[in-house]
Every structure is written in structure tokens, then in C-alpha cells.
């Protein structure tokens, strides 16, 4: 087992990365305070892993309550969040209770938001079971739900007390979900580590095959990158916005299609191709760099062509991006492979860019 530390002073916490962690009750016992724990998950993950987690918690001296949420991005909303509060209140949760978020990014975001809000904040542990959540959403304390006008626009920063990353959960992941997670892995290399990007490019086949040694490497390095960014800028006042490379365009696609129609990683993969092309048009990276990123994303069978909507629709959707200030959209661009920046771009440039990608 490898252990990383997210360094946030008295709110620092470990990320454990290894195999068979769900059965390590000693690990669970380190991160509970009271005697009542809640497993928040969805039906698919419950059938695969909830019994293991519950058994470990019982061995750690916990009474365990399960809260089962409907599955998918389409249910990341107020109504589903209310189901968590219902479960906590009915079972008599208190300030010493702990929530265990067992699942992907949707579960982690909603369980974390519930933990941030219930009694003004209780402890929660992330147990990410998808690659996307293992390399990205489980680390950094961003929690929240979607609104029809924008993704993740309602939420709170609330750090977990620990992240348990069991690599064996990736073995039950559908290929499409695995590829969606690898999009975020590519993003980490693109914005922060050109050598890591080179490594990813040379190991696409092993990653597509979900070889555990390759997965351990990309999860570990991605978490190192994200932990360093979060420690430097917890609440996204500066460098943390670099983690949104590809997301301004990607979130617009997700919202416009209807949440769940494209997986988050699919939209981000396509968004990175658009953002990389923007970076090239601004004179920062070469056409060869754009082609390299595009080939990597295509090799994961992720889409690289966005929906052919009117430019005005894209601009309206992107105006709700969290980086927008006073109606001005800001974009994450690559100054070079491995180095990102956030900047304003004239709307006329974006209009031409989107038209090149088929927008009307």
C-alpha cells in the first residue's frame, strides 16, 4: 500500500492506494470517531462492494446504515441529496458519525456535500471505485450537485478525513468508464507533467487493458499532482483552476446534452481537444502537440468531435462556468505541454474555434 498526504494543516489527510483495502478493518478503525457509520452508494456498487465495507466497519466497532441513491449523473440533484439527509436523520446520526462515500464521482460529490451540510459538517471518507474518482474527484474536497443551468454550481469545499483507493475495484469497471477516467489522467500530464504525459502515451495499451501495475502508476502520479495543487490553492483562487483544462467546453457539452448522456470523462476528453486547439491558435503549442493529445484521446475510444450546436448555445452554456467573472468566460490553455494558464480570450476567437469544430 502506498500513502500520500494532502497537506492542509490541521485538515491534512492521507490517500491510501493499494489492493484489498476494503477488507482492511484496521484502516477503517483509524478514521471513525463515534459508533455510527453510513455507507452512501448506488445499487450497482452496493451489490459489488458494500458487504466488504460493512464487514470492515462492523469489525471496527461500528453500527452501519446504508443509504442507496439512484445511479447516474442525472440524479446529482437536490432531490437525491435529500435522500441522504433522510437516512442520516432517521438513523439518529450525530456530529461523531462518519459518512463513507462508496462509488464514483457522483456519489463522492453528493455524500461529501451532505457531510459538509449535516449539522454544519461531519466527517466523511472517500472510497472511490471508478478511475475518474480515484485520480480526480475524490481528492481535494470539492463537493456538490448539478443545476440545470450549470454543472457543480451548488456545493461546498469539505475535505474528507481519508481516501481509500482500492485498485481492484477497477477490474469491475466497464471499458467506457475506464476510458472516461483516463481522460482525467491525460489532463494531469497535459497541465503539470510532460514526462508523465509521455509515459501515458507509451502505455496506452496497458491502460486500456486495466493492468494493475499501470493503474497504480497513473493513480499515484495523478494524486501526487492533484494533492500538490490542492495544498497550494485549496479553494480555486489561482493555480487550482488549471485542473479545469478541457472542462469549460466539456461542462457545456454535459449540460447541453443533458447530464448523463455523455460521461464526464468523455466530455472532458473532447473539451481538451478543443482547448488544446485554442492553445495552438493562440500561438502557445504546436499543431503536432494538438495531434498528439487528440491521438491519445482517440486511442481511448473517447469522442473528439463536439455536438454541432449554434455558437450562441455554447457561449450561453459556458457563461455559467465557475471561472466566469462578471459574465466574462475564462479558459484554461496550455502554454506548453505540462504547463497551463488561465486567461480571457476574445469571443470572436472562440466563435471561429467552435465553427471549426462544426458549430453553426
What do these coordinates show?
The chain has 360 residues and is α/β, with parallel strands linked by helices. It has helices at residues 25-29, 43-59, 78-91, 105-117, 131-137, 175-192, 194-202, 204-208, 212-232, 247-257, 264-281, 287-299, 311-318, 347-356; strands at residues 2-6, 13-18, 36-41, 63-68, 98-103, 123-128, 142-147, 150-157, 162-166, 330-336, 339-344. A hairpin with a 6-residue loop joins strand 1 (2-6) and strand 2 (13-18). The chain is globular. 49% of the residues are buried. The mean pLDDT is 96.
Helix-strand blueprint:
Blueprint: E1 2-6, E2 13-18, H1 25-29, E3 36-41, H2 43-59, E4 63-68, H3 78-91, E5 98-103, H4 105-117, E6 123-128, H5 131-137, E7 142-147, E8 150-157, E9 162-166, H6 175-192, H7 194-202, H8 204-208, H9 212-232, H10 247-257, H11 264-281, H12 287-299, H13 311-318, E10 330-336, E11 339-344, H14 347-356
Parallel strand pairs: 2-9, 3-4, 3-5, 5-6, 6-9
Antiparallel strand pairs: 1-2, 7-8, 10-11
Question: Summary?
Answer:
By secondary structure, this protein is of the alpha/beta class. The protein is built from 14 helices and eleven strands. The longest helix has 21 residues.
Fraction of residues in helices?
40-55%
- The average pLDDT score comes to 96
What is the top-level CATH class of the largest domain? Answer: Alpha Beta
Number of strands: 11
Count of all domains: 2
Q: How far is the N terminus from the C terminus?
A: 51 Å
The low-confidence parts are: none
CA radius of gyration: 20 Å
The string of secondary-structure elements, in order, is: EEHEHEHEHEHEEEHHHHHHHHEEH
How many H/I helices?
14
Shape assignment: globular
CATH architecture name of the largest domain: 3-Layer(aba) Sandwich
Strand numbers in spatial order across the main sheet? 1-2-9-6-5-3-4
User: Main β-sheet: number of strands, strand sense, barrel status?
Assistant: 7 strands, mixed
- CATH topology (level 3) name of the largest domain: Rossmann fold
- Which structural class best describes the helix and strand composition? alpha/beta
How much strand?
15-25%
